Each structure stands twice: as C-alpha cells, then as structure tokens.
C-alpha cells in the first residue's frame, strides 16, 4: 500500500509540474535566479543518486562491483558512447566483476 | 547531417528549416534509443520489489525516467513513501522549465495543453527546442513523444516480466543500470565549473548523510548543494554566467 501511495504522489506531483510549465505565462518563473536554481537542482540530485546507488547498501557505504561498472560507464561517456551503450557497459562490467 | 542522434543534444546548426523527414528521423532516433532503456527501468523496478502492475503504472503515469528510477531506488532502500516521492518530485521540477520554453514555441491551444503536458520531458524538449519554427517543433515534439511513450511503456512491461525470469537481478549486474542512467543524464550537464561544484558537493553531502539519516533523506539534503553553491558564488563574484544549455 505504501508503494501505491508513493506512486500516486509522484505521478500527481510530476504531472502538475509539467502542466505548470505549459500553463504559466512566461516571465513568472523566468527570473535568472529561479532558472539557475532549476538548472542546478537536477545536477545535485543526479550526482547524489549516482553516488548513493553505486556506493551504498542501506545505510552502509561500500565499494563493490557496481563501482567498477560505473567506472566503465564513465569511461564510455567520455568516449561519447550512446545512452544505451553506457547503461549496457555498466551492467556487463558489474556482472563480470561479480562473477570473478 | 548527423547519423547518430545523441540522447540529449541532437541540435545541429542549420540556416534552412530542416525537411520533415529529417525532423522525424531525429525524433525517432531519440525515441527509440531512450525508449529501450525502459527495459532497464522495468528490470530495476522489479528488482527493487515493485510488482509488474506498479512498475507499469509508474511508466504510464509518471513518465519521466530519472524520477522513476529515483523513486524505486528510494523505496528499495526502505524510505517512507513521502520522502521517496519528494526526491522523485524535485527531479521532475526541471520539466516545468522545459514547459515554459516550449509553450511559446509550440503555441498549443488551451484544450491540448493537459495532454501535451504529460510528454514534456528531457528528450521531447531537446528535439522540439532544436527546431527553427513552430511547425517542425510541433512535429518533432509529437513524434518523439509518441515514440517514446509507446516504447518506454512497452519495454517497461517486458523488463518487469523479464526480471522475474532472470531470478537474482543483482547477479546480472542489473543493479548498476539505475546509477548508470543517472550518470548518463548527468554527464552532459557538467559543462561548467558551477555545475561541477554542485555535483561534487552533492556527492559529498550524500556520502556524509547516508550512514546517519533515514532512507530518502540524504538525497534531499544533497539537493541543497544547488542553492549552497549559488549562494557562495553570489558572494564570490559577479562575473559573467557561463552559457547554460538546460
């Protein structure tokens, strides 16, 4: 049940912010500081989420096969690999290191 | 022009309006590439303990990938539904700003807006905003949105069903798919010093908070890296803003 609550809240929230952008007259949210913050918020969140799902298990920090997988993904990104290849590289390398 | 459409930045500078076929090809390329990563989401979500119905509901109703990955990750970590949803919500806020830029370009009638809104995401915005005029922008937005919506939901279903057939998804390294998606979305945003500082501080805050705070909260604390860096920067300089892409 709690999972459905989370899904419902997320769905409504994410839809409303999308609709807000299309509905609000331009200029209301177009202040430089607001724009700047909105551009940087995903940077902070994505960086934190990457670190969390790579280096933690519950409340414990740890270094395991995922770190190798993400390292390989980072390399693929530097080499300008397409999105799917980046994800596939992370999965394959993580599985490979675990199988060692 | 360019034969490999990148997932975010597919813009090419061209003086003449592109042919419809070029717009459609770009849109299909982005739609197919990202739509397929719905498979990774389906598997990740099922691996996180969500049912097939719950997983598909997320792709149908939330339809913004990073938020979906964030939510299932937070739920898997045992976060309460509201902190988990908050992280996903804050990631979705960027779509508001895409909408602001799109509304002028697309010039949608009032009745269409609630429908079009559901498709206002990274990829549709990237394709539409790269078009020089309203007609091609509408075409790009619609083709990308439709392709992506159909494929994302289809591959989510296949991934969710496939995960149970795979058994222990961790053994297949599929727990690395979520963070790899985040990293791939993050990489093109790290163009400037400010962005890199925000990302670095975000990681630092997360790693400091993770052992100390309840599940879901560390990510929200890490989000404070954005206003923190902006504040510090405001004190330090009033120099020119680096060009921002998103």
TrEMBL record, chain A:
Any matching Pfam family: AzlD
Transmembrane segments: 6-25, 37-55, 67-97
InterPro entries: Brnchd-chn_aa_trnsp_AzlD (IPR008407)
Protein's name in the database: Branched-chain amino acid transport
Transmembrane found in the keyword field: yes
Alphabetically ordered keywords of this record: Membrane, Transmembrane, Transmembrane helix
Superkingdom field: Bacteria
Automatic annotation (TrEMBL), chain B:
GO biological process, one term: L-valine transmembrane transport
Species, as recorded: Streptomyces malaysiensis subsp. samsunensis
Superkingdom in the source lineage: Bacteria
Protein name: AzlC family ABC transporter permease
A GO CC term assigned to this protein in UniProt: plasma membrane
PANTHER family cross-referenced by the UniProt entry: INNER MEMBRANE PROTEIN YGAZ
Family as reported in the entry's similarity comment: Belongs to the AzlC family.
UniProt keywords, alphabetically: Cell membrane, Membrane, Transmembrane, Transmembrane helix, Transport
Localisation: Cell membrane
Positions of transmembrane segments: 27-50, 139-165, 171-190, 197-213
Membrane topology: Multi-pass membrane protein
Chief location of this protein within or outside the cell: membrane
UniProt xrefs under Pfam families: AzlC
